[in-house]
């Protein structure tokens, strides 16, 4: 059963006012008034003709150097970026869990758990029922009562833990994780890897972007390797990682 079909996908970012140094509002206004076109629109072709099919129950790793297009591709699958060319078909609603997932810094961890749960489509009683599990899984309270403090008082690892715990509390058709585990400590990484394996068994598809090859080895059986927006390799984890490690000189 396919859950995600990506067919010859191209994503292009358009950066307005690049290089002109006149990105100000007054400059934009005067352009509008004088009916001149935007001086310089730079295009960044971030994904170039990627095609693959993902199936139910698969955990797929996404690797490649910085700026190779991994986050861009996940955003496109989540429907957050329009395709320049090609198509993305998904079965069910994909959820993207990124390093910048929208939690509110000024609200307490507790409020964020509740809001996050509601935002994922859980009902209020459902969120209340899962609340303690989420907090326990995150381990936020291991060092004192931090869940009742605002998120801005959390370390980056603590915030990442809470984000992952909220997202992982729900069954997802397609769950995409963009390096959310990277800032967690080793024990939390282990716990979240186990949770990823469970989510997969619940018949979903999981995508995991990581620069940590060990995390990929421990969770995924298939890996996509992106470089400069192109899909260089798509195959069994060991095969692709070996080629990648050779390429990066490890
Ligand atoms: N909002 C944006 N506007 C313009 N260009 C962007 C934007 N976001 C990303 N890019 C460009 O798109 C390309 C791919 O970026 P992307 O963030 O997808 O890479 P990545 O593989 O996730 O990298 P990393 O490993 O560093 O997270 C890069 O060249 C980047 O400069
Ligand atoms: Mg990225």
Description of the structure:
With 250 residues, the chain is of the alpha/beta class. 36% of the residues lie in helices and 27% in strands. It has a single domain, classed as P-loop containing nucleotide triphosphate hydrolases (Rossmann fold), CATH 3.40.50. Strand 8 and strand 9 form a beta hairpin. Helix 3 crosses helix 4. The longest helix has 16 residues. The model has no long low-confidence stretch (mean pLDDT 88).
Shape: globular
Sheet-strand content, in percent, reads 25-35%
What is the number of E strands? 9
Strands of the widest sheet, in order across it, are: 5-6-7-3-8-9
Following the backbone from N to C, one meets helices and strands in this order, namely EHEEHEEHHHEHEHEEH
Kindly provide the radius of gyration, computed on alpha-carbon positions and rounded to a whole number of angstroms.
Answer: 20 Å
CATH topology: Rossmann fold
Number of distinct helices = 8
Sheet with most strands: 6 strands, mixed
CATH architecture: 3-Layer(aba) Sandwich
Number of domains: 1
Ligand types: adenosine-5'-triphosphate, magnesium ion
Low-confidence stretches: none
Keywords: ATP-binding, Nucleotide-binding, Transport
Family: Belongs to the ABC transporter superfamily.
Domain ABC transporter: 27-250
GO cellular component, one term: membrane
Question: Could you outline the blueprint of secondary structure elements for this entry?
Answer:
Layout: E1 2-16, H1 25-33, E2 41-55, E3 59-63, H2 70-77, E4 85-90, E5 94-97, H3 109-119, H4 124-138, H5 156-168, E6 174-178, H6 186-201, E7 205-209, H7 213-219, E8 222-227, E9 230-236, H8 237-248
Helix pairs in contact: 3-4, 3-5, 4-5, 5-6
